[in-house]
Design a protein that fits this description.
Shape: flat
Number of helices: 19
Helix content: 40-55%
Number of strands: 20
Radius of gyration: 39 Å
Oligomer: single chain
Length: about 550
């Protein structure tokens, strides 16, 4: 409709070229001005010489009578319309003489203040004063606009707080790194000085085999400590760049724990702190994972316990295994508890930050660069676990470690045990059971089918996710007992295939067991499989014990 009105106001230019038109600019100006004023809460016209004002918007004064501007301003100050905290800045900027002086000098008059809204809350507003009429460079009348800017100011405050937080965070990080460089340079120089000093002394007594042997032992100890410091610096660099990775090798977790405990036997004798081994309940000793990184966690936490526990103190070590609810995985809980000096509550929140160390008289003289805890927690989280800490100053500290490992047989390299495992698997009898295998790789599908048909299972193969969904929909409820689902497939992967199956209206498809098959036992795939609605996990290549456990659980 507005467009039609404008078109109606187009007139022919009688003196111009034929067909040329000009616009009724008065009409357009009126429309533009009406649109612009809606951006303001109020607009006033002020006569500076007489200190008189009239409201132009939202209600227009007829100019028959005008109010005193200063009196009107004082009234707004007294009745609470203007926030008392803003009185000074409003009076200073909106004083008539100040307005005259600033505008005549070419300066702008503008200030922020808080004004009470119709809801009774103070909101930020922006008042601006601009010249309306001037005579010989002297401002006579002005226009004053008031605009609500509360949303913008609050956004600025949020942004300001965010910047302040980031600035403080960056400052703390830089300070921590400076302190780290200071500490680590000292910690590196200490063993280096020992190595250089002991080497020089050994040269002086080169023919005294016994004394040289003692010096060499001390050099070895200092060298190991130096290597540990270097490894921590390298690890923290890898963690920050995202390049730290874990190996996947079979190892005996009980033996790995015993090796670490034996490492601290000498430490216990030297410091006289008592290391007490409590309950160790492990069902699966053979696991697959990064043995050295696992031991690194234990060494860091036990090392801390010995460092901060007095000679007469006690350190308890307990370990248990639980079922995480995912086939083929075991969850291990380790508790290291000491009755040492403990930590302040403020430091507990920062203990896993890089370069962090408690700074008090109890920790002075204790070696360390503040990286061990951060490295340990990152490794634990890469192992689908975590580390939690509880501490009371003067009472001690408790670390709770939770890690997940893929379990394997007790001895994969023993031919006799392997033969027994095969014979035990062959004794299974699941005649009449039907299983859907969703696998795009023909070789993997053939291997899995051979293993399952060996125990009487009828296997149907779907070469991709969409085909698997179609087969499930075509069959009646209960036709398939289990679905083995490959993860990495073209088209829709195993996660999305499972989600679509679970979203189906049929109740049986919401409940049918779906077991993931993937080589990624310690990546985010395990969690993603559970989140997608899968019931278990089998790692590739398939271990017969794990496959047997899944079949026993679900058939």
């Amino acid at each position: 409709m507005e467009e039609n009105l404008i078109m109606d106001n187009m007139v022919q230019d009688e003196e111009g070229e034929e067909g040329r038109t000009v616009t009724d600019w008065d009409y357009i100006n009126e429309k533009v001005l009406k649109s612009m004023v809606q951006a303001y809460m109020a607009i006033y016209y002020i006569v500076l010489d007489t200190d008189e004002c009239a409201m132009i918007y939202p209600t227009c004064n007829t100019f028959g009578t005008m109010d005193k501007f200063t009196d009107k301003l004082i009234k707004k100050l007294k009745d609470g319309t203007i926030d008392p905290a803003c009185h000074d800045i409003v009076v200073k900027n909106l004083d008539i003489n100040n307005i005259k002086h600033k505008l005549d000098s070419g300066e702008c008059v503008e200030c922020r203040y808080r004004r009470k809204s119709d809801k009774g809350k103070y909101e930020w507003c922006l008042v601006s004063v601009m010249p309306a009429e001037s005579e010989q460079g002297v401002t006579k009348t002005v226009t004053m606009t008031i605009r609500n800017i509360d949303v913008f100011v609050r956004q600025e405050e949020i942004q300001k707080k965010r910047f302040e937080y980031e600035a403080k965070r960056a400052y703390r990080a830089n300070k921590a790194k400076r302190e780290f460089l200071s500490r680590v340079s000292h910690d590196i120089r200490t063993p280096m000085n020992s190595i250089i000093g002991m080497t020089a002394i050994a040269k002086l007594h080169i023919n005294d085999t016994e004394r040289v042997s003692g010096y060499l032992n001390k050099i070895t100890i200092a060298g190991r400590h130096l290597l540990s410091l270097i490894n921590e610096v390298l690890d923290i660099s890898k963690i920050e760049s995202g390049h730290l990775s874990l190996t996947e090798n079979g190892f005996n977790i009980a033996d790995a724990v015993n090796e670490v405990i034996m490492m601290f036997e000498g430490e216990r004798e030297r410091q006289r702190a008592s290391l007490q081994i409590g309950d160790i309940h492990i069902k699966h000793a053979k696991v697959v994972g990064d043995e050295l990184r696992f031991q690194r966690i234990l060494v860091n936490l036990l090392g801390n316990a010995f460092k901060f526990t007095p000679p007469t103190g006690k350190i308890d070590f307990n370990m248990t295994e639980t079922d995480p609810g995912i086939s083929g995985l075991a969850e291990y809980h380790i508790v290291i508890k000491d009755n040492g000096i403990g930590m302040e509550s403020d430091f507990i929140n920062k203990i896993f930050e890089p370069f962090s160390r408690a700074d008090n008289h109890n920790t002075q003289g204790i070696e360390g660069c503040g990286l061990g805890m951060m490295i340990s927690r990152n490794i634990a989280r890469m192992m689908n676990g975590d580390i939690e800490v509880e501490s009371d100053i003067g009472k001690g500290t408790t670390f709770r470690i939770k890690l997940k490992f893929r379990v394997t047989s007790d001895d994969n390299n023993d031919e006799h045990n392997q033969a027994m495992k095969i014979e035990a698997y062959k004794k299974l009898n699941y005649n009449g059971k039907k299983i859907l295998l969703v696998e795009d790789d023909e070789f993997n599908a053939e291997v899995m089918k051979e293993l399952l048909t060996e125990v009487g299972i009828d296997v149907e193969i779907a070469p991709n996710g969409r085909n698997g969904i179609s087969r499930l929909k075509e069959r009646e409820a209960g036709y398939y007992s289990i679905v083995f689902m490959d993860i990495r497939m073209p088209g829709i992967d195993g996660y999305e295939t499972t989600r679509q199956i679970r979203r189906n209206q049929r109740d049986d498809l919401k409940k049918i067991p779906i077991i993931a098959m993937t080589a990624e036992a310690f990546s985010n795939d395990v969690k993603m499989a559970v989140d997608a609605g899968m019931n278990g996990h089998i790692a590739k290549p398939v271990d017969l014990d794990c496959l047997k456990a899944v079949l026993d659980d679900w058939l």
